[in-house]
Design a protein that fits this description.
This protein is α+β, with helices and mostly antiparallel strands. The chain folds into 6 domains: 179 residues, Sandwich (Immunoglobulin-like), CATH 2.60.40; 106 residues, Neutral Protease, domain 2 (Orthogonal Bundle), CATH 1.10.390.10; 132 residues, Orthogonal Bundle (Neutral Protease, domain 2); 102 residues, Immunoglobulin-like; 122 residues, Alpha Horseshoe (Zincin-like fold), CATH 1.25.50.20; 113 residues. The chain contains 27 helices and 28 strands. The strands form 8 sheets. It has a 7-stranded mixed beta sheet, with no helix packed on it. Strands 15-16-17-19-18 form a 5-stranded mixed beta sheet, with helices on one face. A hairpin with a 4-residue loop joins strand 18 and strand 19. The two termini are 52 Å apart.
């Protein structure tokens, strides 16, 4: 059955004519020469482009993309002029010629004009202020998924690769960065310069970039590649750490991929504030929102250092996976994002083993599985019908599940075989496009076995596998039988699926053994009848495990002896089983007392997450106070060990755990922690040096949630005055969590006040919904203000609509219904997908809330924990 299913679903290797997309494939671009003249005062641009094209069959009409542009003329090398028809709804332009173009090479010349946008998509402007209050304006591009068409007409789909040579006339005072080095600068009058860049390699339109403004770089070099890390002038020293990461990682990637980075330079560029994505892998010119690239020791938390490492390593991985080799269409976006997410962790672990990054990936596994268990989940590789749907695919399935599946396959076939397969894949498809099938073929060739049955079963169908463990004892020998099912949350109609699952299992402290679980039950002899056995040993597999009572009891007795990742895995699975209605809450809560001696950050991160979910489900019920008291006692043991202040020589992981413990205790209502946070906040206002950067976020969040008008106003003014996005989001995020209904009303009004960093409004509203613990009020207020807030968020952007973001913390089914009925939730396929995903989460939270109060009451009574 599995073989038949795989054959029915398996895709073919890349073929242009069979690749999905909207544009006809009878004409393809080969080379663009683009000249633009932005007017940074009028916020308009004019453009002239010459495109070498290949006509594959005679045609009198060329259809290409444009969005919001006005094409004034289009003609071929023979002088034949086209009649131009623009379709703004379809984001296309049709060029009709009097006579058909013949098969072969032609040259197309187009003149056009268009706007420079305020929202962070396409070509847009970014207004910001320096530390001394000076107003500055930057020119920025952000083209993924389909916004290159807002700067120039072209074939704006990833399969249409071509070379690009860009020239821009810019203010004389601007520094300019694009994918390739500058090859010429010519004065234009007294105030402008004409900057020309070298031709790029063949690449997709969404990877083209241009950033210009008052920027300064720090410089470096590695493996013969020139490196520059750019920041707004005055902040360039804060880019030094990102440059160090860049210099460290590039030689590592050169060796891993077996293909040297092919461009002469690699720039990192920090964009202050008005930026929607976290970062963008433009080939040779990676852009970042500034808090994902700049590190200021005076204000940046230690966790920011790790985040910068991960983001830089992620975008650099894309220079190969995504840029050198590009998915044919957005249905394979996971080939870009899942792989880069896995690679960022691999590089981080290689260079920073003290961060113990692989065990801590458990948290991202949990996030992916939580989304993957809902009715609105989708396969890693999913049909994408338009660009708005493509935007909605940048989610936990493409990133975190994709990464987990890659990790599972690597561990199954072996790291050496996997690396050999990646090298073959890169060499075979360099400067071209590929599909998942091309990757599986390369890995299979290197491994000497077909990886497709495993890989396709996890990428071409949705959902989370559940491995069920049943134990029997015969003649003093224990045997376990493994069967599989589908794990689902709030989805009684989930379609049954069958996976080919690589299973790692073993006794605590022993070596892992390996097997494959397919459709039939699998029996294994494991030793003595009371022998504990751990499935998914090392958590390299993407699946949940449900143990029978005897197996769970055996593991519970030795839980402290398990490796940290296995402790986190067991606890995470057990909580998820409660969430799915497959196990009583007591089975999870009874495991928690062992945490009295727990020191590991991965285990605590998992536990704090689940305690917070239970706290949220109990808000407003009689069980909230006694449960919070239990949670405080549990967390206090570890917090009392660490204390408020860092100790000389403590590990970086302890430094990063402390803020999480403080934040949790504040959320659970620990009055001593709340009072101390308030005291430290007042001292911080008088002297910022009194509050270490590591403690600023939890202290501010506790103050924000419990704020009166004076504290709220102080946070707002501090956010407005802050220069860096990291600080702005820290203050505004704390402000957004205010619980007072009168302050919640001010928070929603602030979302349209023009003070929030562009591209972060949806996150601010989500923070208000979750942090205030009054999500339905936030949702109602945003509904009243939606017409004012919506234009500030990019249409069909990467994030949800304002209304969808504001519903994120709700467990009210009526809110889910109102969300799905809203016009903004149905404005595009992508908006509908994101809204439906949020509505699913609301319904699941409603079910959890209904079951949690009685379950907690029974457990507290049974254990005498009141």
């Amino acid at each position: 059955m599995l073989a038949l299913a795989t054959a029915a679903h398996a895709e073919a290797p890349f073929d242009l004519d069979q690749t999905p997309g909207k544009l006809p494939k009878i004409v393809t671009p080969q080379a663009y020469r683009i000249e633009i003249k932005p007017d940074m005062t009028a916020l308009t641009l004019t453009g002239h482009e010459t495109i070498n094209i290949q006509v594959r069959q005679p045609t009198d009409t060329i259809v290409l993309n444009q969005a919001g542009l006005n094409l004034s003329s289009a003609r071929t090398e023979s002088g034949a002029a086209a009649v131009i028809t623009e379709d703004q709804a379809a984001q296309t332009a049709s060029l009709r010629f009097a006579a058909p173009l013949t098969v072969g090479a032609h040259t197309l010349t187009i003149d056009y004009a268009g706007p420079i946008l305020a929202t962070p998509n396409g070509i847009y402007y970014d207004d910001y202020k320096t530390a001394d209050g000076a107003a500055k304006r930057m020119l920025v591009t952000q083209f993924e998924v389909a916004d290159a068409r807002r700067m120039f007409p072209g074939w704006d789909e990833p399969a249409f690769k071509a070379t690009f040579q860009l020239t821009a006339t810019l203010p004389k005072t601007y520094a300019a960065v694009s994918n390739m080095p500058i090859v010429g600068t010519t004065p234009v009058g007294d105030d402008a310069q004409r900057v020309s860049f070298a031709p790029s390699p063949r690449m997709s339109t969404y990877l083209l970039a241009l950033v210009a403004g008052d920027m300064t770089a720090v410089h470096g070099e590695a493996a013969g590649t020139q490196m520059n890390a750019w920041a707004p002038t005055g902040r360039q020293d804060q880019a030094a750490y990102a440059l160090q990461v860049e210099e460290q990682v590039l030689p590592y990637y050169n060796a891993y991929f077996g293909v040297a980075y092919p461009l002469p330079k690699l720039d990192l560029i920090a964009i202050p504030g008005n930026y929607e994505a976290g970062a963008m892998e433009n080939w040779g010119a990676i852009t970042f929102i500034d808090d994902a690239m700049l590190f200021d020791p005076k204000t940046s938390a230690p966790s920011t250092r790790e985040e910068i490492y991960l983001v830089v390593a992620h975008e650099m991985a894309h220079q190969w996976s995504g840029d050198l080799v590009t998915m044919g269409w957005w249905d394979n976006i996971w080939l870009n994002e899942g792989f880069a997410t896995w690679m960022e962790t691999k590089a981080n672990d290689h260079f920073n083993p003290q961060w113990e990054i692989w065990p801590r990936q458990h948290a991202t596994h949990e996030l992916a599985m939580a989304q993957d268990a809902l009715p609105t989940t989708h396969p890693i590789q999913q049909p994408i019908r338009d660009e708005s749907e493509a935007n909605s695919a940048f989610d936990g399935i493409s990133y975190e599940k994709g990464s987990a599946v890659i990790r599972m396959i690597e561990q199954w076939i072996g790291p050496d075989a996997f690396r050999a397969g990646m090298r073959g894949y890169m060499k075979a498809h360099a400067y071209h496009n590929a599909t998942s099938a091309d990757l599986w073929a390369a890995l299979s060739a290197a491994a000497g076995r077909d990886v497709t049955p495993v890989a396709a079963s996890f990428t071409e169908q949705p959902g989370v596998p559940l491995v069920e463990v049943a134990r029997t004892c015969v003649g003093g020998q224990a045997q376990i039988t493994l069967t599989q099912a589908r794990f689902a949350l709030h989805d009684p109609n989930a379609k049954a699926e069958t996976w080919t699952i690589p299973i790692a299992y073993g006794a605590p402290g022993g070596a892992a053994q390996h097997t494959l679980l397919t459709g039939a039950p699998l029996s294994l002899v494991i030793g003595a009848c009371d022998q504990p056995i751990k499935i998914n040993l090392g958590e390299d597999g993407y699946y949940r495990t449900q143990y029978d009572a005897a197996s769970l009891a055996a593991l519970g007795k030795v839980l402290p002896t398990l490796a940290p990742v296995d402790r986190a895995n067991l606890l995470g699975d057990q909580f998820a089983l409660y969430g799915a209605g497959r196990a009583p809450l007591a089975d999870y809560l009874n495991l928690l007392p062992v945490l009295k001696d727990e020191r590991d950050i991965a285990v605590w991160t998992d536990t704090l997450s689940h305690l917070t979910q239970l706290h949220t489900a109990l808000v407003g019920t009689p069980q909230q106070a006694p449960f919070d008291a239990f949670a405080i006692r549990l967390v206090r043991a570890e917090f009392d060990r660490l204390g408020w202040d860092a100790k000389p020589g403590e590990s970086v992981l302890d430094t990063m755990l402390r803020p999480d413990l403080i934040a949790a205790l504040g959320r659970f209502g620990d009055q001593a922690v709340i009072a101390e946070a308030g005291r430290r906040f007042q001292a911080f206002r008088a002297d910022p040096a009194t509050l270490p950067p590591a403690l600023r976020e939890p202290v501010l969040n506790i103050v924000g949630h419990n704020a009166d008008q004076a504290a709220y106003d102080a946070l707002r003014q501090m956010g407005i005055a802050a220069v860096s996005t990291e600080e702005k989001l820290r203050y505004f995020g704390a402000m957004a969590g205010a619980a007072d209904p009168a302050l919640i009303k001010q928070t929603v009004a602030f979302a349209s006040a023009g003070q929030l960093p562009g591209g972060r409004i949806d996150q601010f509203l989500k923070r208000a919904s979750v942090g205030s613990e009054n999500p339905d009020l936030v949702f109602a207020l945003v509904g009243q203000q939606e017409a004012v807030i919506a234009p500030l968020i990019p249409a069909d952007g990467l994030g949800p609509t304002a209304l969808t973001a504001s519903a994120a913390g709700s467990s009210n089914p009526n809110t889910a219904k109102a969300l799905m009925a809203a016009a903004s939730s149905n404005a595009s396929r992508g908006a509908h997908t994101l809204a439906a995903r949020t509505a699913d989460g609301i319904d699941a939270a409603a079910g959890l809330r209904a079951r949690t109060a009685p379950a907690v009451a029974a457990w507290l009574a049974q254990t005498n924990m009141r």
